[in-house]
Each structure stands twice: as C-alpha cells, then as structure tokens.
C-alpha cells in the first residue's frame, strides 16, 4: 500500500525533440498524448500496465460475457471447490466466486476512475490557479494544500466513513476525492510555476487574452503528461483506500466488490474452513489493478527522466 | 529564527485544522451520528459522563455552536478526552497510553529496519547499473508497493500460521501469559511480532529501494563522482562516501516524515493480526461507535505526524543552510 511517489514529475510537454514520432503536432496536448502512445509501445512496463488496465476495463464493462451466474445469489451448496460449473468454487455463503470476482471489478474501477478524474480536476484547478494568479491567492491556496497534505489521509477516511456507516460507491468516490487531491495539486502547482514566465504566455498576455483563456488554452494543454500522471496516482490511491475501507466493514456490504468479498471471507473464517481461494483471488485482482496504474506511472516517470530508464545489458561498461 | 517561527505557525495552524475537523465532522453528517451513539450507550454510563458526551458532540444542549466550540477546544487543550464508551469506565487517555507502546515497538522498529535495508539495496542496485539486481528491481518493487497491507497479512497468516503452524498470528503475546520483563515473555512478544513486521517490511521496502536508487543514479552522474573515479579511489569509497552520502540527504527527510506516520501507518496490519496498538483501537472505536476514543486517536495520529515534520524541518535547516531561505 505504500505509494511510489515519482521523484521527478514528468516535465512539461514543451518542445523536446522526440524521435520516432513521425508527425509532431503543434498542439501541445496532442503532442503530450502522442508521447504517451509512443511510451506505451516502447516501454515494457508501460505496455504491461496498459494491457492490464484495458483488460480490467473490458471485464468491468461487460461482466456478463464471462460470468453467467448472479454474483450475489446465495443459491449454491456452500464452500465447493473449483469445478467446471464453478470455476473458482463457491463461497461459504453459497455464491459463485468467479461471478463475484468478475462483477466485483465494476465498483472498484468506477471508484478508481471517479476519484482519478475528480481529484485530478480539483488538483488542476487549484494547482494552476495558485501558480498563475500568484501573490495572495497562491499563498492561501498553497497553505490549504500544505495543511491537507500532512493530515493523515487514511485515518481521516476511516473517521468519515465511520460516521457515515456503510458508504456506497458514490459516497466513496466523493469522500476519497475531497480528501485526496492535495498531493497532486502540489505537483501541478510547481510545474505551472515553472511555466509562468515562458515566452508563449507572455505573448498571450500581450495579445490581450483573458486569464481564463490563458489558463485553459495555453497552460493546461502543456501539462498533459503530469495531468495523466496525477490521474494514475489518484486512481491508485482510490483502489487501495476503497478496498481497504470495504475490508474493514466501512463500505456498503450489499455492493459486490473485491473489498467486500475479502470482508465476508474474513468474517466467515475462510482460512480455517479451507477456503483460501476466497481470500487469494480478490486480493490478486486488487494487486493487478493497482500494478496497472503503478507501472504506467513509473514508466511515464522514466520517460520524463531518461536517466532512470533501464540500460541495455550490452552497453554496460564502467566508464571513467 | 524567522524560519523556525514560521514552521511553528504552520504546526499550530494544522493542529487547529485537525481539532476543528474532529469538531465539525460529526455535526456535518446527515442526522448527527452522535445522537445514535448516545442513545445506544444511555443507561450504560453515569449521568455525568452522559452530560459530558452531550456537550462534546452538541446533542441536546442549548449552547450556541460557538460556545460549544470554545469548551471543546478547552477540553482538548487540557487533555480531557472523556471516557471511552466501549471500554467504559476506562478513560480515553488510559486506552491510548496503553496502545502507543505496542504500535511504536512494532511499526517503529520495522520502519527503521525497512529504511536501512531498502536504502542499502537501492545503493547497490544503482551502483551496479544494468546488473541483474538493477533490471529486476524496479518492476518487482513497483508491484510489491501496491499490495494492500491487509491482504498480504492474510496470505502470510494462511501460509505460516494456518498451514505450516510456524508462527502465532493473534494478539501481541500469548494471553495465557502475564506480561513481565522475563526472557520468555519478551521472546513470546517477538515471536508474535514477526508476521506483522514482515508484512509491513515487504509492502514498504519498495518505496525506499526505488527512491534511493533513483536519487543515487542522479548523483552518480555528478562531476565529483567522476573526479573521484579519476583519482583512482577504491570503488567502495566512491559508492559510499561520494555518491550515497549525498544521495541519502533527500531521503532522510522522507524517513523523518515516515516516522511521524508510524502511529497511523499500519492500522490494517494491526487489525488483521489483532495487534492491540493505536490502529487496532481506532478501528475498534469506529466499529463500536465509540466516538470519543476515535477522535482522540485521530488527533494523536495527526499530532505525531506534525511533530515529526517540525523536527525534520528544523533538522534539515540546521544541516543545510540553503533551505532556510527557500523554505
């Protein structure tokens, strides 16, 4: 659960010679996305992360293709082993475990994307506004970010969820979004600060563009890489936090999800009754989805900081 | 001096924010949850305690919000956290004091160990750039650091506790024993700490390895490292005295901060292993709707983080004069 915090945030997508790109777009946002596509194709970690993420998205979009049973119906004999009828067997409550696993992907991905988009949206808004407006605004917004940053997030989430009793998917998204945006806001602010005195912004100001136009059309598109990285960070946090909250019983128990599966497995003493799969399978799914976000993030970090990239073995020599 | 004052100001501001969160949250929630709590414990606690609770959570009082807030802050400042409802009549302060040593011992020692071990592996990996260790390290530890604590704990319980029966996995010592400073009791405590400590070690070490590796790689490209090589110094000396020594500085700040997160850092591990530390009690309080205990523990966890940040800020300022102006 410890997070890999990227040491160096990806740099701004300003003119950087990028080989292998056949046609470079003038639009910095498009250029940023093109760079990422190249990254996914050329960096093995990014490829793996991307493939995993797409797989999980497909499963959660079309769960009925893979799982034909109703995931919450308790209609089967309890604690069956894996068989052709029940690929992973049944739970101690008589549900089909495979169906639970497949349908359980949906709430987790909803929370990941909901928080990823929501928290990144707030972070962009606050981070860029603070950096661009400067002065008094920057001081106040920065202070808010600093304070939020040091209040321990998971204990705070536990307390809020504890007051709310069983938090459903939407409540979960809202709570994690509003508590979790500060870390990425800080990163976005420092990058926006480094852009503030660039010539192309000066040009826009001289042209007499409005502030909102400058922020939305000129600044934000140049930060595409970092915004995507923020999304990945926030989504990863959301996966880990929401499944943890569900595991300790602070989620809505009627939602079929990996976290609630683990909760009922623990409550029904799955280990003592020889039901190891009930605990292992949902956990592996959480690790898989988390790894997808983390690998993509780490790969983009390597792209932003070429020194970190893996060396080709053949070229290794001790120079100097 | 101005720097220290500014950091102290930030410390107080954040402390105030955490205090206020504790005050505001139950009052913000739909249908003040404290009402249900008080109804649940009515009759179980003394009338004075009930009255104090009602004041603490703003139920059935005729005080204005502002005067409620005033007496709340006064109580917190003088350490009056109230009684615990689930452990009645034990006071909240008493439970908290009992819980702290267990968490400090388990999580604190493991955090120090994870930092030392992880930093060492990171140094070696970066030094042997392109070697076997360096090429498998990043993907492996990116993945270990996303494993949920609680799940790894469960899997280790399954393997080493239930299947192999090698290690105990419940509570912090065998509770047929009476706590004492005898060797056998201490041995028992250590035995009970192994599984939770290993869980924490596996899930946290990746971050230390990767951050150390990445700063070390940047440092290795510096001119003074090249200079040291040109002088023909032994490579052990270049690695440790020239590169690692400089690369470790930014990580020390991270380490100081993580010591602050020790109290609230392993909540789920304590939960899974029923290890009666701060995190275990926090979840027990949430589960039993014991809000006074819950609030006190949240405050404690936050204060620990704040103190660690304050100390690390001042230490960095003493060690590195450049940060005094920049901060």
What does this structure look like?
The complex is a heterodimer of chains A (320) and B (327). Chain A has helices at residues 28-42, 44-61, 63-66, 97-103, 105-133, 135-150, 153-164, 169-180, 182-195, 199-207, 211-222, 224-247, 258-267, 276-304. Chain A is elongated, with a radius of gyration of 23 Å. Chain A has a domain at 93-305: MetI-like (MetI-like fold, Orthogonal Bundle). Mean pLDDT of chain A is 83; it is low at 1-9, 15-22 and 313-320. Chain A is 66% helix and 0% strand. The longest helix of chain A has 29 residues, at 105-133. By secondary structure, chain B is mainly alpha-helical. Chain B is built from 15 helices and no strands. The longest helix of chain B is centred in the middle third of the chain and has 38 residues, at 183-220. The radius of gyration of chain B is 24 Å and the shape is globular. Chains A and B meet through helix 6, helix 7, helix 12 and helix 14 of A and helix 1, helix 6, helix 7, helix 8 and helix 9 of B.
What is the helix/strand order of chain A?
A: HHHHHHHHHHHHHH
Helix content of chain B: over 70%
Number of strands of chain A: 0
Q: What percent of residues of chain A adopt helix (DSSP H or I)?
A: 55-70%
**Secondary-structure-derived class of chain A:** mainly alpha
Radius of gyration of chain A: 23 Å
- Give the oligomeric state: heterodimer
Greatest interface and its residue counts?
A-B, 59 and 65 residues
Instruction: Round the mean pLDDT of chain A to the nearest integer and report it.
Output: 83
């Amino acid at each position: 659960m410890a997070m890999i915090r990227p040491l160096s945030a990806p740099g701004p997508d300003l003119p950087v010679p990028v080989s292998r790109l056949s046609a470079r777009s003038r639009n910095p946002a498009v250029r940023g996305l093109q760079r990422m596509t190249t990254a996914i194709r050329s960096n093995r970690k990014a490829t793996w992360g991307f493939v995993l993420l797409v797989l999980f998205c497909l499963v959660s979009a079309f769960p009925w293709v893979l799982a034909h049973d109703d995931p919450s119906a308790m209609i089967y004999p309890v604690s069956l082993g894996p068989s052709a009828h029940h690929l992973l067997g049944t739970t101690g409550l008589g549900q089909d475990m495979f169906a639970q696993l497949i349908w359980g992907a949906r709430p987790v991905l909803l929370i990941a994307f909901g928080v990823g988009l929501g928290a990144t949206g707030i972070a962009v808004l606050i981070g860029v506004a603070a950096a661009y407006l400067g002065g008094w605004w920057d001081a106040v917004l920065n202070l808010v970010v600093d304070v939020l940053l040091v209040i321990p997030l998971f204990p705070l989430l536990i307390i809020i969820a504890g007051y709310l009793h069983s938090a459903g998917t939407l409540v979960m998204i809202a709570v994690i979004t509003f508590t979790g945006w500060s870390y990425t806001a800080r990163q976005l602010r420092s990058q926006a600060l480094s852009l503030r005195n660039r010539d192309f912004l000066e040009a826009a100001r001289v042209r007499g563009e409005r502030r909102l136009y400058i922020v939305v059309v000129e600044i934000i598109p140049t930060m595409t890489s970092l915004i995507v990285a923020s999304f990945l960070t926030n989504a990863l946090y959301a996966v880990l936090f929401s499944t943890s909250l569900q595991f300790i019983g602070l989620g809505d128990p009627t939602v079929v999800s990996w976290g609630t599966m683990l909760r009922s497995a623990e409550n029904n003493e799955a280990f003592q009754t020889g039901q190891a799969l009930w605990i292992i399978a949902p956990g592996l799914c959480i690790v898989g989805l988390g790894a997808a976000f983390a690998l993509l993030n780490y790969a983009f970090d390597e792209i932003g900081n070429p020194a970190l990239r893996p060396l080709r073995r053949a070229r290794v020599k001790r120079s100097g | 001096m101005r720097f220290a004052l500014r950091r102290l100001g930030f410390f107080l501001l954040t402390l105030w924010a955490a205090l206020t969160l504790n005050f505001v949250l139950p009052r913000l929630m739909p249908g003040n949850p404290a009402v249900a709590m008080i109804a649940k414990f009515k009759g179980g606690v003394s009338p004075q305690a009930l009255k104090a609770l009602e004041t603490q959570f703003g139920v059935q009082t005729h005080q204005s919000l502002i005067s409620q807030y005033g007496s709340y802050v006064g109580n917190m400042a003088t350490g009056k956290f109230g009684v615990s409802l689930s452990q009645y009549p034990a006071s909240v302060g008493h439970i908290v004091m009992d819980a702290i040593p267990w968490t400090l011992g388990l999580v604190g020692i493991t955090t120090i160990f994870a930092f030392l071990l992880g930093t060492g592996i990171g140094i070696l990996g970066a030094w042997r750039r392109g070697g076997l260790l360096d090429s498998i390290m990043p993907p492996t530890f990116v993945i270990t650091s996303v494993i949920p604590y609680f799940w790894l704990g469960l899997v280790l319980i399954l393997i080493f506790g239930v299947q192999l029966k090698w290690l105990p996995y419940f509570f912090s010592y065998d509770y047929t024993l009476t706590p004492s400073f005898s060797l056998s009791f201490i041995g028992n405590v250590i035995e009970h700490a192994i599984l939770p400590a290993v869980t924490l070690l596996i899930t946290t070490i990746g971050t230390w390895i990767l951050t150390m590796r990445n700063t070390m790689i940047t440092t290795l490209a510096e001119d003074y490292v090249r200079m040291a090589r040109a002088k023909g110094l032994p490579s052990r000396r270049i690695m440790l005295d020239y590169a690692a020594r400089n690369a470790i500085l930014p990580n020390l700040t991270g380490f100081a901060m993580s010591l602050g997160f020790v109290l609230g850092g392993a909540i789920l591990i304590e939960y899974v292993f029923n290890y009666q530390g701060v995190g275990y009690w926090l979840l027990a309080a949430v589960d039993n709707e014991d809000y006074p205990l819950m609030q006190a523990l949240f405050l404690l966890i936050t204060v620990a983080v704040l103190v660690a940040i304050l100390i690390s800020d001042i230490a960095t300022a003493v060690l590195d004069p450049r940060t005094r102006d920049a901060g």
